[in-house]
Each structure stands twice: as C-alpha cells, then as structure tokens.
Amino acid sequence: MILKAPTIARVSRPGQFAMLKAPGVFLRRPLSIAGVNKDGIEFIYRVVGAGTRELSLLPRESALDIIAPLGNGYEYDLKNRVPLLVAGGTGIASLRFLALSMPVAGVLFYGGKTKNDILPLKEIAARGWKILIATEDGSRGHKGFVTDLLKRHIGAGRPGNMVLYTCGPHGMEKCVSQIAADNNIPGYVSLEEMMACGTGNCQGCAVKTGDSYKMVCSDGPVFNINDICF
C-alpha cells in the first residue's frame, strides 16, 4: 500500500512506523514504513485481523487517517562494517526501507514458512545486495530457518567486519541476538509488538532491557541488540 504523504515521506527514516486508522476499527494499527518515494510512504503488511482486512479493502484514492513517522529508526554509521540484515515474515518491511537507504550493500537473509511468504525484492538486488532465502518447508531456498544461513555465513567470514540488523518473529530475533553475542558482532533489533497508542501513553508494549523496562513505541522500536532481555 502506498499513501500519498510528501511531508511524511521527507522526514521518515528506516525503522520508523505509522499508526493507521482503519475504517470501522477502534484501535489504530501499527505498520512499519517499508519505503518512501517522492510523494508517498509505502507499507507491506499481512491481513491477520479486522484492521488489516479493512485496510486491504480500501479503494484507490481513499483518504486515510495516520500518525507518522513514529519511533526512533535504525542507526547505520557502519564504520566500514558489512551490514547483515535478517528478516522474518513481515519483518522484511522495515529492513527493505533500510536496505534501500544504506550507502553500501551487504547481505539480506530472508525467511518465511513457505515460498508464499517471500516477496520479490528486485529493487534491493539491483542495488547490489546479496539475498539469501530460507523457508521452513523447503519450497524456496534453504530448507530450515533463516538463522541457519546466518550462522553459515558468519562462520565462513570475518565477524569483526560485520554489523547485524534484524526484524521478525520473537524467536528468530532471540536466536539472532545469541548469534551476535557469540560472535561479538554489534547490531540492532526492531521489535514487533502489539500497540494501542503508538506514543508511550498506554504502556502496553513494554519490554525488559537490562534492569528496566522500555516502551517499544516511544523508546524503540529499534534497540541495541545487546540491550533486550529475550
């Protein structure tokens, strides 16, 4: 879905998100910004409930009530490190925006349950990114988890020259966090949590970080990968 919103497009950063008001649905729905163009912002989402279903049924040229951009976004001062992006399912949305914005290309690891969960990423490949795909049923790419490919790649390379970025299911992010710790690789994680307000007021998206709690919407959604207690 592409929304014409030139002012929002100019100030949005990879990793930030929007709260969208679906017609007839009380609470807004948080969606990662998947990219921007001259006049608009782009979203990638899966229909999982009433809110996303209503969004998917909107006719062309509909007006939509949104709050954006929200959140802190990714840091990508790479310091000569090769970026490794690890996406699971709809976690590809914020990492797509990141890959299209980075000054250098690296490796994108992209996983899903089946081939139907894998989106075409021609624009990322055209920028020089190497894309490695895994599906749990083996219908496309490596049969197994995307973290299998990540471990193999790190084992064959030089971890000291790498930096990790990940977004996707909680279990995948936990595994990536452990891989980062085991190999002393710096990185960032974008957390996907249910949100009601998107601004920190309801405190419904709290996550434990060290000896304190942070709000995913207002303190994140991007955190240092070493700070999250999975």
Structure write-up:
The chain folds into 2 domains: 2-70, Elongation Factor Tu (Ef-tu), domain 3 (Beta Barrel); 82-224, Nucleotide-binding domain of ferredoxin-NADP reductase (FNR) module (Rossmann fold). It contains 7 helices and 15 strands. The chain has helices at 6-11, 50-56, 92-101, 122-125, 146-155, 170-183, 216-219, and strands at residues 2-4, 17-21, 29-32, 35-36, 40-42, 65-70, 82-88, 107-112, 130-135, 142-143, 162-167, 187-190, 206-209, 212-215, 222-224. Helix 4 links the parallel strand 8 and strand 9. It is globular.
Second-tier CATH architecture of the largest domain: 3-Layer(aba) Sandwich
Mean pLDDT comes to 95
What would you call the shape? globular
In N-to-C order, the SSE pattern is EHEEEEHEEHEHEEHEHEEEHE
Count of helical stretches:
7
Q: What structural class do helix, strand and pairing data support? A: alpha/beta
Which blocks of ≥5 consecutive residues have pLDDT under 50? none
Report on the biggest sheet.
7 strands, mixed
